[in-house]
Queue: 4 jobs
Job 1
Amino acid sequence: MLQKIWAIAYVNIYQTFTDRNLLIIMLLTPLILASIISLAFGNLSGSAPIENIPVAIVNLDSAPAEGSQVVDSSGILVASFIPVGEDGETAADGTASMGTCEAVQVEDAGGQNMSLTDLTDAVLLTDAAAARAAVDRGDYAAAIIIPAGFNDGISYTQDKPTLAPLPVEVYGDSAQPISASIIRSVVEGFTNQFLTGQIAVAATIGTMTERAQTNPVFGMSFAAAAASGSFQPNFACAFTPGFNTIAIEQQTVTGEQADFNPLVLFGSAQAVFFALFTANGVAVTIIEERRQWTLQRMVISPTPRVVILGGKLVAVFAVVLLQLIFLFIGFTVIGSLLEGQIKSVWGTDALAIAALVVATSLATAGVGMITAAVGKTAEQANIIGSVVSMLMGILGGAFFSVQALGDLEWVTRLSVVRWGAEGFSALAGGGSDISLNLVFLALIGAVLFVVSLVVFNRRQDI
Amino acid sequence: MHNGHKHALVEVRGLKKTFKRKDGTVVEAVKGIDLDIYRGEVFSLLGPNGAGKSTTISMLSGLLTPTEGEATIGGHSITRQPLEAKKLLGVVPQEIALYPTLSARQNLEFFGRMYGLSGSELSKSVDEVLDFIDLRDRHKDRIDTFSGGMKRRVNIGVGLLHKPQLVYMDEPTVGVDPQSRRRILDTVIRLKEERKMTVLYTTHLMEESQELSNRVGIIDYGQIIALGTVGELIQKVGEEDRLIFSVGEQQISDAVLERFRTEVPGITKATYAASEFTPVAGMEESAELVVEKRSTGTMRVARSGQVLDGEITVHAKRGRKALPELLRVADEMGVDILSVEVREPDLEAVFLHLTGRALRE
Ligand SMILES: Nc1ncnc2c1ncn2[C@@H]1O[C@H](COP(=O)(O)OP(=O)(O)OP(=O)(O)O)[C@@H](O)[C@H]1O
Ligand SMILES: [Mg+2]
């Protein structure tokens, strides 16, 4: 019985993988398509840098009083995005202190330095609500809102020896998740620098004060300088991240810290999307073989119907599994070529990757079987399969980032493409908790298998 | 085996199949068939297109569930013990039931596995079948590169892989050239004589039935209208010869036929039939005279409505003996006989006798 199941599966696998046209559609098209979409997305491993991300900055904080030891961090943050002279009038407060500092350098994923002003196109706004609304409209990829009291919160002075940083809000456009996440990373980099800078300042001021107490000459000059406020700008440069270039830490749309690689996101979604087509195609051969009379020939042989259907089921699963394995290896090769080094774009948790590939194959095979089972004719089954595959592909993020759906995001949960692609993205980002994805995919696969077996078995014409 | 015949391998009782079409109409494809097929015989089901031959074969091979009735193979009910019954059975469907992109060998191997063959037993069987159908040298070629006749042979080979005692062959010569057809008929004879197999053979060609079968069942509109050996069936029509006189364009009066019937001894029936020339549609006015292209390759000019090929058919107990007398009467009546054909009684005549129609439309 198992031998017969395998014989049927083998014949189907063999026919699929000896059909050159089918192979092109199954294997080559998704590789090419995902690569093109990734490149179009503009950031395929640094080959096409993201530029001029529109950003709104709202500084609700006020510059510290003259002579205070508080550093104008909010001013520095604003000035980093909008240097003096570029938008002179609006970038009023605190920017003067940037005069002697170098433009902030950031390192993009490709390792090339580019200035923050190249990366972003920032505008200073005064109303936080208006800024958020503008982001919602899509005018800006993100709004950076610096809260009132930000400077005080992260400043260390003799009067206030503790740090109580207030969070800078980065309000991102969900339709531009990658741009928004880049801005978020930049701001995070800044605030971290401010904090570490302040800790250093705290240490320095502490030492200087100590020194001033022990060395009266130094003490006098220090006091004079402090009174004039003239050392502040120099310190400001020290806090500016430009001194230590920060890498843009990109984030995946799932929000986990990761090297964002569109190839991972679109590659996995496209792979699952095409696997759906393949699964449907192989499953539909059950109906096609009836026309070809090879199905009848099997029914005439002493082979129970359930064995025949079982063989087909194994075939659908195996073909999809082989296809996905090929595609994931293919994307690894493409990713490595673009990076110039051999690198697993899918992360390093081989066991989890394998488990996810298997679970995704089960789910796609299940979808393929059920779409074939409900079609009356082969043509009908193909059309149903194509429509379902397209819907799942669109909802699953094979063509655009699904976060763009905003409140409707739950709809994407109906797509096995989403569940698969999300899992692969998580693994690629170094995450490992994909158990929900695994369970869902395996379960949906199992349920659809059983249902389609029942449906097929009930059909009089099989 | 309640009918007492101990050699019946296949027993069919009251087998019926009714199809319901989507538009609600009901097709009674098989209206209740009873028959026994004995061990070692070639039994043919002879009937015109749509008679219900394939439907019967499908029910007897477990592909279609009978609406009513029952069939057993080697004592196993095809509906209640299908796996046991199917093991005894090889089927050659009317359609070429093969994977076109697989080679002949791959097809044979795959279907061999469906009959539980594997390993060396399988490859030995496949080799034997390839020899039997004479395709050993092409075994690695894909089926879709084969000629129609070669595909038919592979189609037959698949049915023989597991060396069944019984094989059904549903119109295995449909759509093949005369040479391939001869080959297939010889194959059937070899199956019966060399392998002592039981064969259920369906055809709409009476020559095939007549040559191959021990017994024939004539099927029409889903019913067996006659069953027996070829000899038994021919006796049914009274063993009359048919004499066919070609008279060309001559008009034959009833008087001629009347004289044939009354003056020549042993004549039971004399009829005249003629085909009239009808011009191709749309050419009626433009050409009163139309060029007719004849099947012999000759051309001739005919007038619309003109009689072309007239034929007098005479049924006689002993046709050859009556021939001189018939020719004499014709001569007296001024009828010019162009050619004469004497047809001895055959299954065609039996069918004609039973249904009033010719087997081949
Ligand atoms: N699945 C079906 N649904 C409806 N009608 C059917 C179906 N199968 C067969 N029939 C009808 O049943 C009748 C018998 O068909 P069948 O195929 O058994 O004839 P056959 O004797 O094999 O003819 P042929 O020589 O053309 O193969 C035909 O009228 C056919 O149209
Ligand atoms: Mg038929």
Job 2
Amino acid sequence: MPVRQIDDRKLWQRYDTATRLRLWGGWIGTTLVVFVCWQVISGATRWEFVADAPQQLSQFIGRMFPPRWGYLNELWLPLWDTLNIATLGTLLGLGIAFPLSFLAAQNTTPHPLVRYVALLIIVVSRSVNSLIWALLLVAIIGPGVLAGIFAIGLRSIGFMGKLFYESIEETSREPVEAITATGASPLQVLSYSILPQVLPSFAGVSIFRWDINIREATVVGLVGAGGIGLNLNASVNALQWSQVGMIFIVIFVVVLFSEWVSARVRQAII
Amino acid sequence: MLRLQHVSKRYPTGNQALKEINLTVPEGQVVALIGPSGAGKSTLIRCVNRLVEPSEGQIWLRDTEITRLSTRGLRHIRRRIGMIFQEYALVERLSVMENVLSGRLGYVNFWQSWLRRYPQADVDNAFQLLERVGLLDFVDQRADALSGGQRQRVGIARALLQDPDLLLVDEPTASLDPKTSRQIMRLITELAQERGLAVVINIHDVPLAQMYAQRIVGLRAGSVVYDGPPEGLTTAQLTTIYGEEDWDRNRQADPADEDAVLAMVAQDAGQPRPAL
Ligand SMILES: Nc1ncnc2c1ncn2[C@@H]1O[C@H](COP(=O)(O)OP(=O)(O)O)[C@@H](O)[C@H]1O
């Protein structure tokens, strides 16, 4: 009890003695763990390499500059591929995540068993990185843009599905009750009481994911799944650092652009 | 019209919300259900359209036994039962018109409702009702742009567009100020009278119930403890329903309020109204 009686006065403290001791113990324990970890990490580090790092970095950047501006002409097509991978991948993810989220949300699922399957799909999709999806898909359907689209799409299902079903679960119950009471069918109840409530957040999440996917689409090429990543991989392998520099600049501009678009669209929705 | 026989409800949590309720509401009667919170008022009216499944007993609307209906039959009978809610229960992001038209969802198919292609007759009726509740200028506004009283009017129009035989009304005034509360109660009872509807209103405001209902049913801990005319509600009766309290003192503590009520009653003379 945080309240103690001394004579006829009541003292109040946030924590009682046992809790205070536990808190102190926690702090000391954490400090010890951090210290031990530091020891292990520094033991495994070649400090000469670390000391050398700034020099390496400046050399690295030096080799990239000046970028090969002429290389830009060869980048338009991969860039277009990258945008397509991101956009079509997002649409693919959206198309699957949308119905999936209604199956996964507690208040709209037709059956608890269906719900667990839907949640499983979402978790699997989320736990595998786009790059790994791309690796798998390149092995299955061969290298190219299609593998990239599927990789991005599969990864997006989990992300969007999770955020979608959470917002479905947060909808208020009263309109659902009211629409049900009119004698509406289950599908009408969904479309009149749940959908209007979640539409803005669905749109926001989709745009946000598209923005992320633009960035992810630039790397899936590293494993052969199309887009500008292919050129990056080739240039690094060929030690063409000035081309690498050019690619980085292009990616940077594209990412800025997608950030701008998604910010604009989200503003318009809300 | 509406008949409840031995209706009981026990929630899965073990709460016995209703015990052996027997109640018959004839055509055109306005019944006020009063009682302390937790007495089972909202459970009772939700059992009627089976938003809450009663555990035992039968409920009849005319000669249909609601408690025996399949899903499809239940949807059909729900069209005959309009419902009005405490928090209005509008779909905030839809327009006033869409909200009112949603009262017809039981009559149109999915694509008609999805594309908002309601039969012209429904739209005509919706306009008429919106005019009746004084919201004709708000047809295209989004529901979340309206005040509480206006939202409740939309809720009323939605319920009536169903063309119901019975109105279930759940605490229609609990979120409204005293003046708007009276206007809303008046609107509901007038519209019900015009159309000859039976009405069951949950309400915890006893004077308001006495003013607008023809019959009072007092509920306590899931059982009916009073069933009679508004005038018959004595101090002793209130004590049975709500428990010990100095009722007369409470009543007198609000003279200004009572005056206001009388003034408003006088204001629209010409409307038949049960005596206070
Ligand atoms: N969904 C529910 N699950 C479990 N118990 C409930 C539920 N709804 C209401 N109850 C219980 O049933 C009793 C009656 O509640 P309610 O019908 O809401 O009363 P009132 O409308 O008169 O305030 C209360 O004891 C309440 O706790």
Job 3
Amino acid sequence: MKTIISARRLCKKYGAFVAVDGISFDIEEGECFGFLGPNGAGKTSTVRMIHCVSPLTSGTLIVDGQAAHVDNRAVKQQTGVIPQEITLDSDLTVRENLQVHAHFFAIPRREARRRIDGLLQFVELEKRRDSKIDQLSTGMKRRLLIARALLNQPRILIADEPTTGLDPQARHLIWQRLRQLKDQGATLILTTQYMEEAQQLCDRIVIMHQGRILKEGAPARLIAAEIGREVTEIRSAADQDESLVAELGPLARGHERAGDTLYFYCDDGRPLMKKVLELDLPATVHRPASLEDVFLKLTGRNLVE
Amino acid sequence: MNFSRRIAWVFWRNMVSYKRFVLTTFLASLIQPLFYLVTFGIGMGAYLGQFGGKPYLYFLVPGVLTTSVMMSSSFECMYGTFVKMIHEKLYDSLIATPVSAEDAVAGDIAWGAFRGLVSGSLMMIVAIFMGILPVSLLSVLLLVLLMVFVGVLFGSLAMIVTSFAPNFDFFNYYSELVITPMLFFSGVFFPLDRFPGWMKALAQFMPLTHAVAVARAIFNGDYSRGLLLNFLVIFILGGAAFYFGVRRMKKRLIK
Ligand SMILES: Nc1ncnc2c1ncn2[C@@H]1O[C@H](COP(=O)(O)OP(=O)(O)OP(=O)(O)O)[C@@H](O)[C@H]1O
Ligand SMILES: [Mg+2]
């Protein structure tokens, strides 16, 4: 596969504040690459440099063979952006939003009309084509943002937390659409705080924290490497840790305390569960390990900001 | 500076949105100037009699017309742009397309100038209906051209203000400290030659003074050599304000 985006020691500072702290990564053409991280990790700052609206402070960033910089219209021409914030033009209707946007990409009028009809259908907004933006629900607005991002038939699609604030139906619809786009060969760059979203969509992810990349890999591999297959959660007071760890620790790969819960990570949870039953511990949950465990283990189970 | 033909499409975006409230803006941009025409022109004009061989209204109309261009283009590039930038995040979505920050800002200055042109033209039409006519068809065309320059000048100056504005209240300073004094000390309502020397000198620093001088000369067809200087001030100041307005706004938009 061909590398389409490549960053080396990429840095972004706002004044003295370091938002992105020397990260390096490669994104392959046609894959879905995810940036995971808590609030303020630097995800948006990173993708904004990729789509050439934010200058790099230092490092190199190559997008499709060209250096990324704020005046690079060629990169912008073939990139679609679903921004984190809803930046629709509220003075215009749904259709006008798309028409005006098509002009910015120099799409011929007739071709634009054809694409707009297709895209409105794709995001299931045909019936709302003449609605004003403030008459739309959040889910509809997010879908319109997707349609807008696809007008120029981008080779690179950047989706910055595309499902924040949506109900499960709307979220699943957006996931389906993003998967469809990937199947059509687009390179997808996703930022998210939802682990399920990353697991559903991403081939590879990086976990970011305070401007740095902590881990990189395929979601399943990361889970296996960092956590194992299963997790046991025991609600207990912290002063019991010593005795519990003495009993259960040898049967697990690792353990961690966060708030009122003690977590044990294991590859095979049966011996540990047997012990738990023997000890007759109430308030115990045994479940498969998820990306969320990796995320919380790496970025800390307590509030970051 | 990274300009392209997309400036025209940014302008076009404003046009698409404008069609919904065009009538209300007509009213809004007519009321204040009409107010001046009635109170000063008809009310005071009755006492003033002839002014350089013509009724006072011939003196007043070009001044009010220029003022209304200034007002419309300034307010469009302050309040209009600020809403688009901060409240609607429109600039963010513009610069994520091949539109550069320079294109976006220049398109909005052009839009501000257009709004000024519309207001000024409406004024001219009202004046014509009142029987106050520019001397010739050529004057009308020259006035239109002048209004475009004046619109770019004041739109750009307003854009500089907007680039610093933390919130709406900030615009009050500019309106109260710059726009309003200009209205009264730029020879819109009275000729400057009756003012004391220091005030005349001060007036030369107000861009509106020069704009009004040129507009009045064109309207009445009495050209003099001094006008060249007035026009140069508009042209050079307009160019400089445009340059700095775009540059300052780019700095604010690109982080
Ligand atoms: N324009 C700016 N000026 C100053 N600081 C900024 C600016 N934009 C972002 N930051 C800071 O940089 C850090 C990283 O922000 P960024 O938006 O990239 O994070 P994020 O991972 O996208 O977070 P979120 O999940 O909340 O969107 C944050 O601490 C933020 O406050
Ligand atoms: Mg973000």
Job 4
Amino acid sequence: MIIHEAISVPYLCVSSTKNIFFNPEQQQCPENAQSMILLLSRQDDGSTALVIEWLIALRKKYIRVNSDTNRMKFVSFDIDKEELIIEQNGVRVNLAEVNSTWYRRRGFSMENISIEDTTLSKAVFRNNSHYHKTHMQSELKVMIEFIHAFVEGRSTKQIGNHSSVEVNKLKVLEAAKRCGLKIPQSFIVTTKADLVNIINTYNDVITKAISGQGVYFFTQTHHYYSYTEKIGLEQAAELPDTFFPSLFQTQIKKKYELRIFYLRGECYTMAIFSQGDKKTEVDFRKYNTKKPNRFVPYKLPAGIEQKLTKLMNELNLDTGSIDIIVDRNNEYYFLEVNPIGQFSMTSVPCNYYLEKKIAELL
Amino acid sequence: MNPVRLAGHTGDYLTLYADCFLVQGHTRTMICDVSRKKMFFISNAYHELLLELKTKTIGEVGDMLEDQSDFEEFEQFANYLISHELGFITDNIECFPPIDLVWDSPYSITNAIIDIREKRLNFEKIFLELEQLNCPYVQIRAYSVLSPEQLQSILLCTAATDFKHMQFLLKFPQSFSIEPYSQLVQQYKMISLQFHSVPGADFEQLKGSYPYSDISFIRQEIDSCAGCGVINSESFTLYSLHGFIENIRFNGCLNRKISIDENGDICNCPSMAKKHGNIDNTYLKDVMAKEEFQVYWHINKDEVAVCKDCEYRYICTDCRAYLTDPGNLYSKPLKCNYNPYTAKWNNQ
Ligand code: SF4
Ligand code: SF4
């Protein structure tokens, strides 16, 4: 956790059309000293560091909590005094001061507030460590939920939220369709016969993970899929007759792919040209370093923007990273939304200053 | 890849990718591929063609050409752009806006130069003030020898700072041993050391002997700030889109820079005649907020004589201290020998 006391320095703002000299009168009022921004992130997240640079420039006070360290400790909670004290790197903070929260990642984790595991198993449940683990985990879950409710309840400003950081891909696809967006034909099947049937009907079929998180085990032989993979009759032949329920979609003949960072009704869109290159033809995340893809700003048709806004409202998301494919007939196919998606990869090449916009909203 | 036949695309548009910028010079135009960091040169006639293509379809532009051979050249040019992945043909050009040239930085000062010779500067005060200005990059140029102990005493003053990188330009001492310096770069992860004025024999012996990039050696003799400001093809920078846009809009060298010369005087850069008070009794934040100080930040190359006709102007860092006409703030850098009217370097 880093607490940064806002320092008062002249801050020069440059608009896109005119050069404005720094003028002390135009300085923004420093935020109320009692207010604090809570950044829920991970240690490795570069975007958080960039947003923090802007928070410092805007003289806003913040505290960053990374879900992947155990350096943060829960200390105490006092209902009467309305004090929820946590400690990180020896500094104690009252989370009641938080009035703005950003869910860059998932939020508080078990790792954050649990006490050292082995000590406890030795001390308390000497002969049934499994029991204590499950018990502790359900206790911690309640605690974590409460801390989220506590800070969210006090946050007058908030980006992202705890309850919708994880979305169900299948529900999202269904909702997208309801909002009037086109989606690829999607099937979940469990038998080779059904899959072969689909491939014979649609020719170009891909498979991807159903759950949001990357890699999952797919065949009995040797395939792990973290990227979207094309699947043909040959690959299908390698499969056992029945397999784990898997998602298959018809492959869209893409002109280019769009990555949209959605933030409070605004779509910051970037086109990704990767078709020229076999390596990235199916999923641009298989990056080609020799000839990097082109990333350029893109203006979505108003109709598509409206449908996306409707979808995000329906999913109760105020921010997220959306993937769309544009096919050769200029049809837009919605693929998925990631509520805690990367945005610097869109912000930097398109010069969108999303890090600054987020810092301003917090 | 098969060549593209324009006849099949008369209703479409030919456009550059937004990260490929056109920079028109007097004799030729540069296409600056900012993402892939490559330069391409085309004739100004093609530059005009590309401007037409912003609003007209391939067919409409084709109709403006005089005869068949012109159209073939057009087709060849289109294929040149497409095969180098500088441009593409599209039927929905309205979806491809240019990159907005807005520029901003969370750092009120982005970089600082501090020169040292004999006078001991108050580094504690300097670093603290730079930290308060949120300055991420600091360069320290020493014209007299700094012993490892002296260097360490300067580094001790960085304790409360969070600089991203500090570059030291150090005078090569007469009896040199790398150990104490390599210990310092290990201890202070954000620093790098470059030794200047390295004698030929030592240079031959040292070059390649130290495996990391945080200590390096150059032969160039640097005995004052007067060595700065040289512009040649090596001094061009194409670092990032953010930097490129800054260079289009602002001064490539002096924007959001603050410096302290060897006497402790505060200035845009040590080579500038105008000083803005001494660090002993002046706050950096008061100097940087002065309109008079910021004037240089805003002089971009579109405003500088000769440079405004140069196709290199958005990757050229500029120099406002050494001018061809010292009386004219907007005259060409003195130490540049490129002539954009002939597209030739005059190498003395
Ligand atoms: S203005 Fe010229 S002399 Fe000053 S730092 Fe820049 S290049 Fe060097
Ligand atoms: S003429 Fe101006 S812009 Fe061109 S290289 Fe020389 S200094 Fe740079």
